[in-house]
Amino acid sequence: MLINRLLVNGSKVTNMIIDAHCDALLKMWANDASFESSPELQVNYKKWKSSSVKVQCFAIFVPDDVPEESQFRAALEMVDLFFEQIIKPYDDIKFISSKQDLLELDEHEKGAILTLEGCHPIGHDLTKLKTLIRLGVRAVGLTWNQANAVCDGIGEKRGAGLSAFGEEVIHLLNDEQIWTDVSHLSYQGFFDVMKLAKYPIASHSNAVAIAPHHRNLDDKQIEAMIQKDGWIGVTFVPYFLTDADQATISDVLRHVNYFIARGAENCLGLGSDFDGTDTFVKALYDHMDYNHFIQQLRSVLTDEIVSKISYQNFVNKFPRQRSS
Predict the structure, then answer these.
(1) Which of 90, 120, 169, 202 is the most exposed place for a label (fewest CB within 10 A)?
(2) Antiparallel, parallel or unpaired: β 137-141 and 231-234
(3) Nearest 5°: phi and psi at 274?
């Protein structure tokens, strides 16, 4: 029960990390990449076991070129990959479905969480979302960049907010104690969610004041997340970090410091987006670089704040308390 002990001891120095977003499942599904040791994956078993990442979230993301009638099946195939290639083969990888599961991880164990990036695979069918939740999904991104039956994404010119069906989705997530993920959501949709969601999360989003990308959060959105006791994962996607040709760890630190300056110290974490981008932060390519990154965080922040960002805020805010 390592995490439980560290939470009790609060200030204990640790490099333990929880990463709220990666797209390894997409690469495994699309390219038949093996989770064991495929060099194509930034997140694979061998790298993970050698790293300080204690818990990794694995996103189900169905590409938009998959025909509509095949999208839910593709999502289920990724769920199957999660259990068959990530959970089943390894005694030291534990499926996490609740805060209780997080707290009960032993020192030698890693935890894997299943998430959904975009509700397009469920169409207009709430039963499909209920099925994914029963299969273990614990955070639900409402959209990717395009529009779907729930809401418009940030790339949709119309910029509409939640639909009536989208409101049903939020109520279900509230009832099931599941995080509602606002990353990729339209601006109007973001604030519609803030009115309804009990458990908002931005799994991989940065600060627009530092990098003016439309996927990033502005000050009004950051304040709304703080007021709703939400969680924000700083991401390592270079074009969400800087307009410069090369992103560095210093750029990541600038976003971290900005969020803290806005009052988000207790809402902040990490959502790398490993395996979800083809450009990379210098010296922060995969799990193996996390130790160096945490040391850089410690050079500018207290150990207490680094512990909050690296794992403690995520654990504190995990919505579902116990496994059903």
Answers:
(1) 90
(2) unpaired
(3) -55, 145
Q: Which two tokens stand for residue 207?
A: 């600060």
Give the C-alpha distances (Å, rounded to integers) separating 273 from 219, 238, 251, 270, 280. Answer: 22, 10, 16, 9, 10
Q: How far apart are CA 306 and CA 210, in angstroms?
A: 20
Residue 161 corresponds to which tokens in the numbers above? Answer: 């907010």
Q: For residue 74, how many other CB atoms are within 10 A of its CB?
A: 19
Block residue for tokens 């119309």: 158
pLDDT at 323 (0 to 100): 81
Cα separation values, 309 from 7, 103, 234, 305, Å: 13, 17, 9, 6
Query: What pLDDT score does 11 carry?
Result: 46
Confidence label for 226 from pLDDT (cuts 50, 70 and 90) = very high
- The rounded mean pLDDT for the chain is 95
| DSSP state for residue 153 in the 8-state scheme | B
Q: What span, in angstroms and rounded, lies between the C-alpha atoms of 273 and 141?
A: 14
Residues near 45 by beta carbon (within 8 Å), at least 6 away in sequence = 35, 36, 37, 86, 90, 93
Q: What is the mean pLDDT of residues 140-149?
A: 97
98 and 321 Cβ atoms separated by less than 8 Å? yes
- Mean per-residue pLDDT for 123-136? 98
The tokens for 183 are 């990353």
Give the model confidence (pLDDT) of 78-128 as tens digits: 999 999 999 999 999 999 999 999 999 999 999 999 999 999 999 999 999
- Grouping H, G, I as helix, E, B as strand and the rest as coil, residue 323 is coil
pLDDT of residue 1: 66
What single letter denotes the amino acid at residue 70?
Answer: S
Contact (CB, 8 A) for 172 and 126: yes
